[in-house]
Amino acid sequence: MGHVNSVVLAVSKCPNPTVFQKTLALNDFYFGSEDWEYPMGHISFVGKLDGVALSIGAPKLAPGFTLELMAQHSLDFWLTSEDLPDPNNRVTLDRDGNIVLSYTPNNLEPHKRLQAKLQDMMKQQTKCPEHGHSCHVGLFSRSLFLGQRIPLAGVAHQNGTIRFGHDPKTSALDVNCKAHDVDNLYVVDGSFFPSSAAVNPALTIMANALRVGDHLMERL
Protein backbone atom coordinates (compact mmCIF):
# COMPACT_ATOMS: atom_id res chain seq x y z
CA MET A 1 0.00 0.00 0.00
CA GLY A 2 1.04 3.58 -0.60
CA HIS A 3 -1.05 6.72 -0.29
CA VAL A 4 -3.57 8.39 -2.55
CA ASN A 5 -1.61 11.57 -3.29
CA SER A 6 -1.99 14.65 -5.44
CA VAL A 7 -0.46 18.09 -5.73
CA VAL A 8 -2.77 21.09 -6.08
CA LEU A 9 -1.47 24.48 -7.13
CA ALA A 10 -3.31 27.71 -6.32
CA VAL A 11 -2.26 30.86 -8.16
CA SER A 12 -2.68 34.18 -6.39
CA LYS A 13 -2.50 37.82 -7.49
CA CYS A 14 -0.24 38.30 -4.49
CA PRO A 15 3.31 36.96 -4.63
CA ASN A 16 4.16 34.18 -2.20
CA PRO A 17 7.70 34.89 -0.96
CA THR A 18 7.70 32.12 1.66
CA VAL A 19 10.84 30.00 2.00
CA PHE A 20 9.80 27.33 4.52
CA GLN A 21 6.32 26.73 3.15
CA LYS A 22 5.98 23.14 4.37
CA THR A 23 5.20 24.14 7.94
CA LEU A 24 1.39 24.22 7.89
CA ALA A 25 -1.09 21.35 7.66
CA LEU A 26 -4.86 20.91 7.89
CA ASN A 27 -6.54 17.82 9.36
CA ASP A 28 -10.10 19.16 9.67
CA PHE A 29 -11.38 16.59 7.14
CA TYR A 30 -9.20 13.66 8.21
CA PHE A 31 -12.15 11.83 9.81
CA GLY A 32 -14.86 13.17 7.51
CA SER A 33 -17.13 16.20 7.58
CA GLU A 34 -20.79 17.15 7.99
CA ASP A 35 -21.57 16.13 4.41
CA TRP A 36 -19.31 13.02 4.22
CA GLU A 37 -19.01 10.60 7.13
CA TYR A 38 -15.91 8.79 5.88
CA PRO A 39 -12.27 9.90 6.28
CA MET A 40 -11.01 12.13 3.48
CA GLY A 41 -7.42 12.78 4.44
CA HIS A 42 -4.73 15.31 5.12
CA ILE A 43 -3.92 18.67 3.48
CA SER A 44 -0.50 20.23 3.84
CA PHE A 45 1.74 22.62 2.02
CA VAL A 46 4.44 21.05 -0.10
CA GLY A 47 7.91 22.55 -0.38
CA LYS A 48 7.82 25.73 -2.50
CA LEU A 49 7.73 24.90 -6.20
CA ASP A 50 9.79 26.79 -8.76
CA GLY A 51 9.68 27.16 -12.52
CA VAL A 52 11.79 24.06 -13.07
CA ALA A 53 9.42 21.89 -11.01
CA LEU A 54 6.38 23.32 -12.81
CA SER A 55 7.93 22.58 -16.19
CA ILE A 56 7.66 18.83 -15.53
CA GLY A 57 3.88 18.91 -15.77
CA ALA A 58 3.50 21.89 -18.09
CA PRO A 59 3.05 21.87 -21.88
CA LYS A 60 6.36 21.76 -23.73
CA LEU A 61 5.69 25.13 -25.36
CA ALA A 62 5.17 26.93 -22.04
CA PRO A 63 7.85 29.64 -21.76
CA GLY A 64 10.16 29.44 -18.79
CA PHE A 65 9.57 33.00 -17.62
CA THR A 66 5.80 32.31 -17.42
CA LEU A 67 6.35 29.25 -15.24
CA GLU A 68 8.74 31.14 -13.00
CA LEU A 69 6.20 33.95 -12.59
CA MET A 70 3.51 31.40 -11.71
CA ALA A 71 5.81 29.83 -9.14
CA GLN A 72 6.34 33.21 -7.50
CA HIS A 73 2.56 33.55 -7.06
CA SER A 74 1.70 29.95 -6.20
CA LEU A 75 0.48 28.20 -3.06
CA ASP A 76 1.44 24.55 -3.35
CA PHE A 77 -0.61 21.88 -1.56
CA TRP A 78 0.00 18.18 -1.01
CA LEU A 79 -3.15 16.11 -0.47
CA THR A 80 -3.02 12.61 1.05
CA SER A 81 -5.81 10.07 1.53
CA GLU A 82 -5.71 6.57 3.00
CA ASP A 83 -4.83 3.63 0.79
CA LEU A 84 -6.96 0.64 1.83
CA PRO A 85 -5.90 -3.02 1.84
CA ASP A 86 -6.73 -5.12 -1.21
CA PRO A 87 -5.67 -8.79 -1.48
CA ASN A 88 -5.04 -8.27 -5.19
CA ASN A 89 -2.56 -5.48 -4.49
CA ARG A 90 0.64 -7.34 -3.76
CA VAL A 91 4.30 -7.86 -4.53
CA THR A 92 5.21 -11.29 -5.92
CA LEU A 93 7.97 -13.06 -7.84
CA ASP A 94 7.56 -14.63 -11.27
CA ARG A 95 9.16 -17.90 -12.42
CA ASP A 96 12.38 -16.09 -13.30
CA GLY A 97 12.67 -14.40 -9.93
CA ASN A 98 11.62 -10.97 -11.20
CA ILE A 99 9.63 -8.70 -8.89
CA VAL A 100 6.01 -8.31 -9.98
CA LEU A 101 3.97 -5.40 -8.61
CA SER A 102 0.20 -5.71 -8.85
CA TYR A 103 -1.61 -2.56 -7.80
CA THR A 104 -4.97 -0.92 -8.50
CA PRO A 105 -5.72 2.42 -6.76
CA ASN A 106 -8.70 2.53 -4.41
CA ASN A 107 -10.45 4.95 -2.04
CA LEU A 108 -10.49 7.60 -4.78
CA GLU A 109 -13.87 9.14 -3.93
CA PRO A 110 -12.75 10.53 -0.54
CA HIS A 111 -9.67 11.98 -2.24
CA LYS A 112 -11.81 13.75 -4.84
CA ARG A 113 -13.92 15.17 -2.03
CA LEU A 114 -10.78 16.33 -0.22
CA GLN A 115 -9.71 18.19 -3.36
CA ALA A 116 -13.17 19.75 -3.56
CA LYS A 117 -12.92 20.89 0.07
CA LEU A 118 -9.63 22.63 -0.66
CA GLN A 119 -11.08 24.29 -3.76
CA ASP A 120 -14.07 25.54 -1.77
CA MET A 121 -11.78 27.05 0.85
CA MET A 122 -9.59 28.69 -1.77
CA LYS A 123 -12.64 30.30 -3.39
CA GLN A 124 -13.11 32.36 -0.24
CA GLN A 125 -11.53 35.62 -1.33
CA THR A 126 -8.85 36.97 0.97
CA LYS A 127 -7.36 40.43 0.84
CA CYS A 128 -3.72 40.98 0.05
CA PRO A 129 -2.22 42.83 3.06
CA GLU A 130 0.08 44.80 0.78
CA HIS A 131 -2.23 45.82 -2.06
CA GLY A 132 -5.71 45.36 -0.60
CA HIS A 133 -7.16 43.36 -3.51
CA SER A 134 -8.43 39.78 -3.47
CA CYS A 135 -5.59 37.29 -3.74
CA HIS A 136 -6.69 33.88 -4.94
CA VAL A 137 -7.84 33.88 -8.54
CA GLY A 138 -7.42 30.32 -9.69
CA LEU A 139 -7.00 26.74 -8.58
CA PHE A 140 -5.99 23.82 -10.70
CA SER A 141 -4.43 20.40 -10.18
CA ARG A 142 -1.07 19.34 -11.49
CA SER A 143 1.19 16.38 -10.97
CA LEU A 144 4.89 15.86 -10.60
CA PHE A 145 4.36 13.27 -13.33
CA LEU A 146 1.64 12.88 -15.96
CA GLY A 147 -1.98 13.33 -14.94
CA GLN A 148 -3.43 14.94 -11.84
CA ARG A 149 -2.54 12.33 -9.24
CA ILE A 150 0.85 11.13 -8.03
CA PRO A 151 1.23 7.52 -9.27
CA LEU A 152 2.62 4.68 -7.20
CA ALA A 153 6.13 5.35 -8.56
CA GLY A 154 6.10 8.64 -6.64
CA VAL A 155 5.36 7.07 -3.25
CA ALA A 156 8.00 7.14 -0.51
CA HIS A 157 5.88 5.49 2.21
CA GLN A 158 5.30 1.88 1.23
CA ASN A 159 3.21 -0.01 3.79
CA GLY A 160 1.71 -3.46 4.11
CA THR A 161 2.55 -6.87 2.57
CA ILE A 162 3.02 -8.62 5.96
CA ARG A 163 -0.31 -9.18 7.71
CA PHE A 164 -0.44 -9.50 11.49
CA GLY A 165 -3.09 -11.21 13.60
CA HIS A 166 -3.87 -14.09 15.94
CA ASP A 167 -4.24 -16.89 13.39
CA PRO A 168 -1.07 -18.23 11.68
CA LYS A 169 -3.29 -19.45 8.82
CA THR A 170 -4.27 -15.89 7.88
CA SER A 171 -1.32 -13.83 9.10
CA ALA A 172 2.47 -13.92 9.19
CA LEU A 173 2.97 -11.96 12.44
CA ASP A 174 1.28 -12.04 15.82
CA VAL A 175 -0.05 -8.91 17.55
CA ASN A 176 3.43 -8.14 18.90
CA CYS A 177 4.86 -8.24 15.36
CA LYS A 178 6.65 -11.56 15.98
CA ALA A 179 6.69 -14.09 13.17
CA HIS A 180 4.36 -16.99 14.01
CA ASP A 181 6.88 -19.55 12.78
CA VAL A 182 10.18 -18.00 13.98
CA ASP A 183 10.51 -17.22 17.67
CA ASN A 184 13.27 -14.62 17.39
CA LEU A 185 12.05 -12.73 14.30
CA TYR A 186 10.17 -9.45 14.72
CA VAL A 187 9.07 -7.05 11.97
CA VAL A 188 8.61 -3.47 13.17
CA ASP A 189 8.67 -1.40 9.97
CA GLY A 190 5.64 -0.23 7.99
CA SER A 191 4.99 -3.62 6.41
CA PHE A 192 2.65 -4.70 9.23
CA PHE A 193 0.30 -1.72 8.71
CA PRO A 194 -3.33 -2.80 8.05
CA SER A 195 -3.72 0.26 5.81
CA SER A 196 -1.68 3.24 4.70
CA ALA A 197 -2.92 6.20 6.70
CA ALA A 198 -3.18 9.68 5.22
CA VAL A 199 -0.07 10.92 7.01
CA ASN A 200 3.65 10.20 7.08
CA PRO A 201 3.95 6.80 8.84
CA ALA A 202 7.31 7.50 10.55
CA LEU A 203 5.95 8.41 14.01
CA THR A 204 3.56 5.43 14.01
CA ILE A 205 6.44 3.11 13.10
CA MET A 206 8.53 4.58 15.94
CA ALA A 207 5.68 4.25 18.45
CA ASN A 208 5.10 0.62 17.49
CA ALA A 209 8.82 -0.13 17.68
CA LEU A 210 8.83 1.19 21.26
CA ARG A 211 5.78 -0.99 22.04
CA VAL A 212 7.51 -4.06 20.63
CA GLY A 213 10.67 -3.10 22.52
CA ASP A 214 8.72 -3.14 25.80
CA HIS A 215 7.40 -6.58 24.87
CA LEU A 216 10.93 -7.82 24.22
CA MET A 217 12.09 -6.44 27.59
CA GLU A 218 9.30 -8.41 29.28
CA ARG A 219 10.36 -11.58 27.45
CA LEU A 220 13.99 -11.10 28.44
Which series of helices and strands comes N to C? EEEHHEEEHEEH
Q: Give the percentage of residues in beta strands.
A: 15-25%
Shape: elongated
What is the gyration radius calculated from CA atoms?
21 Å
| Low-confidence segments | 140-147
Q: Can you describe this structure?
A:
- By secondary structure, the chain is α+β, with helices and mostly antiparallel strands.
- The protein has two domains: 4-152, no CATH class; 157-220, no CATH class.
- The protein contains four helices and eight strands, in the order βββααβββαββα.
- It has helices at residues 51-57, 64-72, 108-122, 202-219, and strands at residues 4-12, 25-26, 42-45, 74-81, 90-93, 99-102, 136-142, 149-150.
- The longest helix has 18 residues, at 202-219.
- The protein is elongated.
- It starts with a strand and ends with a helix.
- Residues 140-147 have low confidence and may be disordered.
Give the topology, please:
Layout: E1 4-12, E2 25-26, E3 42-45, H1 51-57, H2 64-72, E4 74-81, E5 90-93, E6 99-102, H3 108-122, E7 136-142, E8 149-150, H4 202-219
Antiparallel strand pairs: 1-4, 1-7, 1-8, 2-3, 3-4, 5-6
Helix pairs in contact: 1-2
